[in-house]
Write a structure and sequence with these properties.
CATH superfamily of the largest domain: Glutamyl-tRNA Synthetase, Domain 3
CATH class of the largest domain: Alpha Beta
Oligomer: single chain
Largest sheet: 4 strands, antiparallel
Structural class: alpha/beta
Order of helices and strands: EHEHEHEHEEEHEEHEEHEHEHH
Number of strands: 13
Strand content: 15-25%
Bound molecules: glutamic acid
Number of helices: 10
Length: about 280
């Protein structure tokens, strides 16, 4: 099978050194394996994604010396696909509508007997307030949550499901664990159908399969999310790629770079006369 990987940024701000590292590493691994590097634009969040950021992504990556197949897959052009997947999960009774706000969730968890809220890869573990609702009770704007217990039951034996990690941390084979998924991750949000938003958890799984990705290269901050994504692959009968979660580029204070770290934007290094080789050196490649 030909090696295929991708870089999948969301156009919500300028790419910074952390993105440069991720993209260059994926590109280098594709070359190393005589395979392909693809670019995918993850632009389902219509509030935060802007065309000017997308244009800048293409400019920055070309400047870094990367090449990719066009047209590029843009998630905003595939919303019906994600909708169909949600319908499929709904037909199997695996998702339910949820109208809880963050405040509702915090309030439900602040009952004295609850202790500190548990935080999973998708944020605070949902206390299950809406779990009993059926889909007919769905109101505009409701989130659609995966019933994790039912999802785990639907795939049968979780120990048959797992993935191979090729990155520097957690290297090796990992199996899903039913109890960790149910109590440590909980009922993650997969979409909000009426307003056509899908969670990146689901969209990325669908797209990785659609694009024939054999290895996902991305930051180690998404390592925990991989367990949910592998579960979704099993539920949807999609192949599981291998994963390479790389270490994160940090700022001077040791904090991971975020989009607001404009000072580390590739665009600014370009304007200051840095070369692509300088960027490679800065990120340790
Ligand atoms: N779009 C995600 C991000 O920009 C990346 C998701 C992935 O690589 O699977 O963080």
């Amino acid at each position: 099978m030909t090696y295929r990987t991708r870089f999948a940024p969301s156009p919500t701000g300028p790419l910074h050194l952390g993105h440069a590292y991720s993209a260059l590493l994926a590109y280098d691994r594709a070359r190393l394996h005589g395979g392909e590097f693809l670019l995918r634009i993850e632009d389902t969040d219509t509030q935060r994604c802007k065309p000017e950021w997308e244009t800048l992504i293409y400019e920055d990556l070309h400047w870094l010396g990367l090449e990719w197949e066009t047209p590029v897959r843009r998630q905003s052009e595939h919303l019906e696909d994600y909708d169909r997947v949600l319908d499929q999960l709904a037909a199997r009774g695996l998702i339910y509508p949820c109208s809880c706000t963050r405040g509702d969730i915090r309030a439900a968890l602040s009952a004295p007997q609850e202790g500190a809220p548990l935080v999973g890869p998708d944020g605070i573990v949902y206390p299950g307030t809406c779990r009993g609702r059926d889909l007919d009770s769905r109101k505009p704007g409701d989130a659609l949550r995966l019933n994790m217990r039912k999802a785990v039951e639907a795939i049968g034996n979780t120990s048959n499901c797992g993935f191979i990690e090729n990155g520097p941390d957690h290297t090796g084979t990992h199996q899903l664990d039913a109890e960790t998924l149910i109590s440590g991750t909980g009922d993650v949000v997969l979409g909000r159908k009426e307003i056509e938003t899908v969670s990146y958890l689901l969209a990325a799984v669908w797209d990785d399969a659609a694009q024939g990705i054999t290895e996902v290269v991305r930051g180690v901050d998404l390592y925990e999310a991989t367990f949910v994504q592998v579960l979704l692959q099993a539920l949807l009968d999609l192949p599981t790629p291998t994963y390479f979660h790389h270490l994160l580029i940090r700022d001077e204070d040791g904090k991971r770079l975020a989009k607001r770290h404009d000072s580390k934007a590739i665009r600014l290094f370009r304007q200051d006369g840095a070369s692509p080789e300088d960027i490679r050196r800065m990120v340790g490649l």
